[in-house]
Amino acid sequence: MSDNWEILPESGLGPLRFGMSEAEARPIAQPLYGVIEAEGPVGLQSNDEAYRVLLETMGEEAAREAIGTLEKSGVDLQPSRRISFVSGLMLDFVQDGLDSIMCHSAAFPLHVGGKPFFGVDPLPALRLLQQLNGEPPFVKGPDCYFSNIEVTAFECLLLMPGGGFRATREGTEEAGQKTIGWQRKQRTPPEDLKSHVRLDLAT
Predict the structure, then answer these.
(1) β-strands 138-140, 143-146 pairing
(2) CA angle 155, 99, 67 (to 5 degrees)
(3) pTM as predicted
(4) Which of the ends of the chain has fewer CB neighbours closer than 10 A, N or C?
(5) Radius of gyration of the chain (CA)
(6) DSSP 8-state code for residue 170
C-alpha cells in the first residue's frame, strides 16, 4: 500500500497536511495524484451569499431567522476552493489552508492502515476507522459518520431487513458510488444526529 494514499484522520492524506496553503500543497499533490481535472469555488462563500440564496427560496423573514441561527451557532462561511484530480481526489481549501479531503471510487489506492476502501469489501477499513474513532459510528441509511475523527464514509453500507448489515463494494444502487471524506476540525454547529443510529461494525 502506498503511503501517499493513506487516510490520516485529523491530519490529512499521505504527505498532505490540513492547514497547508494551496501554494504549499500543489507541488506535492500534482506529481502524486495526477492531472488536475477541475478547480474553482465550491459551495456558499459567505453568510451574505447564504442569505441571498435563502431570500430567494424562503422569503425575507425566514431567511433572516435562518441566518440569525447560523450566526448564533458561531458559523462564519468562508470562501473555499476545490481542486479535483483525475485520480478521484478532491482537496478543499479555505483562507487558513487545506480544510477537507474527499475521494471517490476512482481512487483505488486509498486505504486506512493498509486496509483498502475502494474496489473491495470496505468492512475491514470501516472497522479500523471505528477503532480509531473510539466508539461505533453514527449511521443513517448507507452512510457512516465517525464523529470523533470527523470521517464520513458515504454509500458504504446496506442495512438488512430485520437487522444486520453488509458493506458494499461499489456503492448503493439508489445513490451511486462510494465516497469518503474527512476534515481537520469538528463541525460547527455539530451535526444533528437525531435521525442517526449507532451501529457497531465489529459485530
Answers:
(1) antiparallel
(2) 85
(3) 0.81
(4) C
(5) 18
(6) S
